[in-house]
Target: atpase expression protein 3
Amino acid sequence: MKMLNRSWKAGKCNGSLYFLECMVTKGYQPDVMCTKLIKGFFNSRNTEKAARVMEILEKHGKPDVFAYNAVISGFCKANRIESANKVLDRMKRKGFSQDVVTFNIMIVTFCSQGKIDLASKVFEELLRDNNCKPTLITCMILMEAHILEGGIDEGKWYEGEKLVNVMFSRG
Model:
């Protein structure tokens, strides 16, 4: 594990993936280090290697919601929404619930693309989710997006009012 970490810190990303692959062939069960590798590969715009690390983690380890969020976020930042949705579906099939971070990732992505209607649908899904509640950050992301899109000027006060009501009702 130390070699994997040292390899990564030394900027040897490809070496890190190679070490990980060697380690799992020898029976090593991947752990939280994989999430760091996933984020690192996405940050260096190497989506295929990030996806490969997640494949290894799913096959030989126990991925958690943090690993899934790292992959979903990475694909969203790479503008690969369909890939992010596939990972989200896989996450759900494996029994993981979305957390507020997962929802926020999708909301931010849609807002940054000007797809406020899709972001609002994700928000509505979040409101229906009994395991998760929106945060002030969630509401502010949507509020800002509506303002930037001119939603308030267009008389869509109900969207802003709904967000304010959610913020107050959630504490």
The first helix runs from residue 2 to 9. The chain has ten helices and no strands. Residues 30 and 57 are 6 Å apart (CA to CA).
